[in-house]
Amino acid sequence: MTDWRSELQARIDARARSGEAFILAGAGVGLVGKAAVSAGVDAVMTYNIARFRMDGHSSLLGYLPYGDANGITLDLAARIIPAAGGTPVIAGVGAADPYRDLGRLLDQLLRLGYAGVVNTPTSGTYDGAFRAELEKAGLGYDREVEMVRICRQRGIFSLVYVFDTDDARRMAEAGADAISPHLGTTGSFSDLEEALQDAVHRTEQMARAAREIAPNIHVIAHGGPLETPAAVARVLAETSAVGYIAGSSLERIPVNEAVRASTKQFRAIRLRAS
């Protein structure tokens, strides 16, 4: 069996040494995963949010009770892993699933061919009273931290979303291989410059917090104003992040644009004059 944890760590390190970003592509269908791999993506990620996204729905549906998140990830294995053609595929895991033993679920994902895990859907996207109730009920971020501890014990690669410096420290202490400072839903901003400055500040703030605990932990940027290659390049140039997780920016937005452009060209065809 491939030692995916060592393989992924080596891939990230190799990219960093060469001055290139490590790029992960979210994929909800095999076609997107295959296309991304053919273009040189370093790893593929798949999860319930990507499935909703490629069905034409908002990513936010992945955080609402309209599907079995872990069941979707299990189902996606047969669709995404073969399409990736040997490129590592990371599985989105909902750590608070009450119907699956977390250890057995991780084993099942490895048997299916997944190379590692990411904590999505994550309770970190919630805040306020609802987030407090999740934590009180034992269904919150603590479960995701526990998942990372299990992964470290079993040698499973873990890339995890963090939302503040406390999350970053906790995940570093638990043994995460990489953290991804989550900057919110990917999208356009009225003041892009201000949003990018904030993205740089928050990404580096969480990176430093994690490295206080684990100096060699990898940091991967994601979300918020990081919608275009130029925006991603800006944040990577001004932070210590060594890679980028592309979700909507690599599948939903490009697919929408390509299909719309092609359809308009076909729609412009005129019949021969009578």
TrEMBL record:
Recorded GO MF terms: hydrolase activity
Which SUPFAM superfamilies does this entry report, sorted A to Z? Phosphoenolpyruvate/pyruvate domain
Q: Which domain of life is it from?
A: Bacteria
Entries under Gene3D superfamilies matching the protein? Aldolase class I
Which keywords does this Swiss-Prot/TrEMBL entry list? Answer: Hydrolase
Pfam families this protein is in? PEP_hydrolase
Keyword ATP-binding among record annotations: no
Residue span(s) of domain TIM-barrel: 9-269
Query: What protein name is recorded for this chain?
Result: Phosphoenolpyruvate hydrolase family protein
Q: What organism is the protein native to?
A: Phytohabitans maris
